[in-house]
From TrEMBL, chain A:
Complexes and interactors: Forms a heterodimer with UbiV.
Listed pathway(s): Cofactor biosynthesis; ubiquinone biosynthesis
Family statement: Belongs to the peptidase U32 family. UbiU subfamily.
Keyword terms: 4Fe-4S, Iron, Iron-sulfur, Metal-binding, Ubiquinone biosynthesis
Binding site for [4Fe-4S] cluster: C169, C176, C193, C232
Pfam families: Peptidase_U32 (PF01136)
Protein's name according to its UniProt entry: Ubiquinone biosynthesis protein UbiU
Described function: Required for O(2)-independent ubiquinone (coenzyme Q) biosynthesis. Together with UbiV, is essential for the C6-hydroxylation reaction in the oxygen-independent ubiquinone biosynthesis pathway.
Protein's UniProt keywords contain Iron: yes
InterPro entries, A to Z: Peptidase_U32 (IPR001539), RNA/ubiquinone_mod_enzymes (IPR051454), UbiU (IPR043692)
Cofactor: [4Fe-4S] cluster
UniProtKB/TrEMBL annotation, chain B:
Protein name: Ubiquinone biosynthesis protein UbiV
Subunit and interaction comment: Forms a heterodimer with UbiU.
Family matches, as Pfam families: Peptidase_U32
Similarity comment text for this entry: Belongs to the peptidase U32 family. UbiV subfamily.
Species this chain originates from: Thalassococcus arenae
Length: 325, 298
């Protein structure tokens, strides 16, 4: 299976490739990609160099242009597709129907992947994008079980890529406006979710309170480490209950499922984390490269290498296990 | 500009559904979208009410459309979606995979849960036969104006979310079942206990979200009361009103009065504040700094 690794910066890209990534994904430093964070992403010149670096070492570069173009400003997104093509990207990762139609029409030879933001969650959706726009790979939304992934693969002819590690969306991606409800900024329009610009911390009595757009997301005792106030991982009350109504502050770890995902016909495993440090990227990519190679040989997943990743972190296999629902 | 009633997002029993659409037949709205949008498990429990509802609405001169599910993953859900096109009614797609089942040359509507953010997407859908598109509620007025203009050129009627709790997210996980410590497969239809969804507040008691099975809504009811003139000027064809369990016909009447000029924005807002569950309004997606913002907040 192909290991698709995050590259938030040119330095992280070099780190990921050196650590064993067969493919990296990255984006331009603007609202065209879904990790539009300050200090992240690539200028055109940086992407040019990065593609050279990766190709010299046999790795692919996938460019995410996966926000939904703003009405009246589609040129910015069209230019991003054109530049990715000119610079020699191995594929673009797209979510918006209109932008996909544009890329298929104007850049027919540029390989097109369907972003998780397009939320294609069944074979009809996947075949619709494949037949209509020549999509070659679909990144499956994190609402599916392994069995459902296997069933989808039995009815489609294009490649599937799934998330195996890192941040976890609880909602169907590309179909969530919780963040813009609280802050005005959304993944779909602005490429950000629960943005740091709208986070405020306050010490109130024995607690640290984290608010997002003025809404309280967590209250944590001061002597404990407070998780980042991602909206859907917050602690809320509903009737008599108080707790993590949507999801605990956990991240996805599907390392144990790698053999099952391989059997389900998955082509590529994706690691989330374009906003993470180079040290993190290095560690995670190395561990997963070892695991993917073990899987290819038919060996059991190397427990030791993977266990180091989960240390101190609460993790879940998310929707891959049916019980999660 | 006229009024369209969207699909009821909540799980109501057959009697409540019959009564709701029976009453709605007398409301001053041009068209009504019916059917199950949120959870495929619910439909068998209330679908017997649908034929009567459709008949009552049609007899009252309203155009009736059938919604698709918003998130289609199971085989049975794909089958349900294909069957929608056999009824002869217009189908409002709320998941793009429904297009796979669209008979050649058939017109369709596009619901608020499909991502139509720009002219390119709108144009593509128009070419496939879309004649009416309700825009995603997240869009600001500036985008709405652009899309309404493109819609006019393409002959597509553009609708904007005019009233109701906002559909903010859809998931594989059922939050209603989770709140009751039940797995989704054994939910025992507990979402039916809450005819307007189950409210979720922050730890500081701020009214925030509402859980409706696998869907998350805003707890505030959105209202375009203060944007009616701007939307009319932009060429928006209709306001989308989303059902709630009580006083909905009166709310439709208020909106009709607002559109005809016999009710002011202030009067509409005041009337709504007394009728919506929780009493909270929002119009921030259209004109404010965030979706939850209410332009008349003190």
């Amino acid at each position: 299976m192909e290991l698709v690794c995050p590259a938030g910066t040119p330095a992280a890209l070099r780190t990921a490739v050196t650590a064993g990534a067969q493919a990296v994904y990255c984006g331009f430093a603007d609202e065209t990609n879904a990790r539009n964070f300050p200090g992240l992403n690539f200028s055109r010149a940086e992407l040019d160099e990065a593609i050279d670096f990766a190709h010299t070492r046999g790795a692919k570069v996938l460019v995410a242009i996966n926000t939904f173009p703003r009405a009246g400003a589609e040129t910015l997104w069209h230019q991003a597709v054109a530049d990715a093509d000119t610079l020699g990207a191995d594929a673009v990762i797209l979510a918006d129907l209109g932008l996909i139609a544009y890329a298929a029409d104007r850049h027919p030879d540029l390989r097109r992947h369907l972003s998780v933001q397009a939320a294609a969650a069944n074979p009809d959706a996947v075949n619709f994008y494949a037949d209509t726009f020549g999509i070659r790979r679909v990144v499956l939304p994190r609402v599916l079980t392994v069995d459902e992934i296997r069933a989808i693969n039995s009815e489609i002819d294009i490649e599937t890529e799934v998330f195996v590690f890192g941040g976890l969306c609880v909602m169907a991606e590309g179909r969530c406006s919780l963040s813009s409800y609280a802050t005005g900024l959304s993944p779909n329009m602005n490429g950000v979710c629960s943005p740091a610009s709208h986070v405020a911390y306050a010490e109130e009595g024995p607690e640290l309170v984290a608010r997002l757009g003025g809404f309280t997301i967590h209250r944590t005792p001061r002597d404990r480490s407070a998780p980042y106030p991602t909206l859907c991982k917050g602690c809320f009350t509903s009737g008599p209950q108080t707790g993590h109504v949507f999801e605990d502050p956990v991240s996805l770890d599907a390392t144990d499922l790698i053999p099952a995902l391989a059997k389900a016909g998955v082509t590529a495993l994706k690691i989330e984390g374009r906003q993470r440090s180079r040290a993190y990227v290095e560690k995670v990519v190395r561990a997963f490269r070892t695991a993917v190679e073990a899987e290819a040989r038919g060996d059991a997943p190397p427990k030791a290498a993977l266990a180091a990743l989960a240390e101190g972190q609460a993790a879940t296999t998310g929707a891959y296990a049916k019980i999660w629902r | 500009m006229d009024l369209t009633v969207g699909a009821n997002p909540y799980f109501w029993d057959t009697d409540r559904v019959c009564a709701f659409y029976g009453d709605l037949a007398a409301a001053p709205v041009a068209r009504v979208v019916v059917g199950e949008q949120v959870c495929s498990k619910r439909l068998p429990l209330w679908q017997d009410a649908l034929p009567d509802a459709i008949e009552a609405l049609t007899a009252a001169g309203k155009t009736v459309a059938l919604t698709s599910l918003a998130l289609i993953t199971l085989k049975r859900e794909r089958k349900m979606t294909a069957q929608l096109f056999e009824t002869g009614l217009v189908v409002e797609i709320n998941d793009l995979s429904a297009l796979r089942h669209l008979p050649e040359g058939r017109e369709f509507w596009v619901g608020p849960l499909v991502n139509v953010y720009n002219e390119g997407t709108l144009r593509w859908l128009a070419l496939q036969g879309a004649t009416r598109i309700c825009l995603p509620p997240e869009l600001p007025l500036s985008s709405v104006a652009r899309l309404a203009e493109a819609g006019r050129e393409l002959g597509v009627a553009i609708e904007v979310w005019g009233f109701g709790r906002l559909p903010l997210a859809i998931a594989g996980r059922c939050y209603h079942a989770r709140l009751h410590d039940r797995p989704k497969d054994n939910c025992q239809f507990v979402c039916g206990d809450d005819p307007d969804g189950r409210d979720v507040d922050t730890l500081d008691g701020q009214r925030f979200l509402t859980v409706n099975g696998v869907q998350t809504l805003s707890q505030a009811s959105a209202s375009a009361a203060y944007q009616v003139e701007a939307l009319q000027e932009a060429g928006v064809a209709a306001l989308r009103l989303s059902p709630q369990s009580t006083e909905f016909v009166a709310i439709c009447g208020d909106y009709a009065a607002r559109l005809s000029g016999s009710m002011t924005a202030d009067a509409l807002a005041e009337s709504l504040a007394a009728k919506v569950p929780g009493g909270q309004l929002a119009d921030g997606f259209l004109t404010g700094p965030s979706g939850a913002h209410w332009s008349r907040a003190g």
